[in-house]
Amino acid sequence: QAVARTRADLKELSRRMAGQVPDDTLAIFDVYQGMLDAASMGDAVENMIKEGWRAQTALKYVVEQFVAQFEALEDSYLQERATDVRDIGQRVLLHLQNRQRKRKPLPDNFILIADEVTASMLAELPRDQIAGIISLNGSSNSHAAIMARSMNIPAVLGVDDIELHFFSDRLLAVDGYTGEIYVDPPAQVLTQFHQLAEEEQELRDIVTEHSHLPAETQDGQRISLHLNLGLDVTHDYLKTLNIDGVGLYRSEIPFMMRDQLPTEDEQTEMYQEVLDQFPDQPVVMRTLDVGGDKPLPYFPLKEDNPFLGWRGIRLTLDHPEIFLIQIRAMLRASIGKSNLRILLPMITSTSEVDEASRLIKQAYFEVAEEQGCEVGVNLFQPQLGVMIEVPAAIYQLPAMASKVDFFSVGSNDLTQYLLAVDRNNRRVASLYDAYHPAVLASLDEIARRCEEIGKPVSVCGELAGDPGGALLLVAMGYRQLSMNSYNVDRVRWILRNVRSSTLNVMLAKALQARNPDQIRKMIAEKMESIGLGGFVRAGK
Predict the structure, then answer these.
(1) Considering only CA atoms, which of 73, 222, 225, 231 is closest in space to residue 146?
(2) What is the pLDDT of residue 408?
(3) Alpha helix stretches (DSSP H) within 210-279
(4) Which of 35, 88, 402, 539 is the most exposed place for a label (fewest CB within 10 A)?
(5) Positions marked catalytic
(6) Which top CATH class is 110-196?
(7) What does the pLDDT average to over 493-510?
């Protein structure tokens, strides 16, 4: 009953937000509903209840397990799903306890401040009265932040060095670009803020108006924009996006949201949904990338150095039965379609590619025989790609070239491994920077090497969706960028307003810089000079 009431609450929140935010943002509530499915938290809670635990205790224990699991991930977007799980758990618990939240009268204009602002919290409050958001915890990848962006609400997150009560009954101004909060600002500052807000709306309208156009520079250099997908994969809004395919489907997400390995049939159904969404476009499915920092609840791992441990292709090749079932499911899902591409994570040597290729061929002929498929007619041999995220792979590119069809750079992990920084470790997280000269030099070298060996290469890390990062990557020669949906049209507009000659100058300066701050300053100044400053600071 508590779950059913929570579902009803979420449906009501989604209904209230309809028309206020884009459909892709509204899909956040579908993700919430999915978390309530029996195959996710439900089964785990029920199993504990059958063992004799009270429902409330079982729920709390399972939610805490899921939260810890998501918080341990190195992908900052997926890491923020811990907030969603916690929010869902609290909502179900409220109904289990038969508690009602006390409603306080709301002022006409207010800034929402909480220990952790959630998407559902935003949906419960009247949009036209929220002037800004301050969350003591969280990051720009949280669903609350994504929703705030789509609602045009400035937000500052991760202000964890200030007590909540400090902000009570104060006049505040919030700058979501700089992360600055002005306490009791003078009148001239408020006037400036209002002016900047008007300019921002004008810029958003322009970007939206041009979303149907191709992503190409002013001198005709065409760039393919692709999506990174993991949770929300079957929504109508995806069909309306002007994209060229899926550059990264994180197949581990369905594995993490269950209390046991999904069967081959269950996986086939999941992958079919994704492939059906993009029938005429390539869909790059990354094989299971768990282990180390991304443990499965039913596959516990304890390692001293999880980032350097048993993860990605290392784990699945040591468990070929898991790898084979997943590949078979992908192939079965692709019958009658030709859009499947398979991507191998955490590759460091050609022997790993050889072994994975052998297993993929085995699965291919097994499926063809079992399903009565005609090879090359209604069951196609999928293209095979390798993720470049371990620095060793950079120097293996020529050796791998004859064994694969494409490469994809995971800039997040590549940055982490190049700089020897765990970005989830707060003591050293400030050292993690994709604009580090060494990272940019490596990305430039990868692009040049791939051009020399004649293999296509894309970037699917966060840098691809960053305005300045996208410009530098295109200057290096990358012609396929994959990102989250809310960055697609922004990057498209930016690319349509630059020339290749401008990008080449930016890249030359970036590669000569000595530290990330110099590079950021140079990008900001250059974007300002060509009229694109509104993408890196407030205003138009």
Answers:
(1) 231
(2) 98
(3) 236-240, 252-256, 264-277
(4) 402
(5) 143, 460
(6) alpha beta
(7) 95
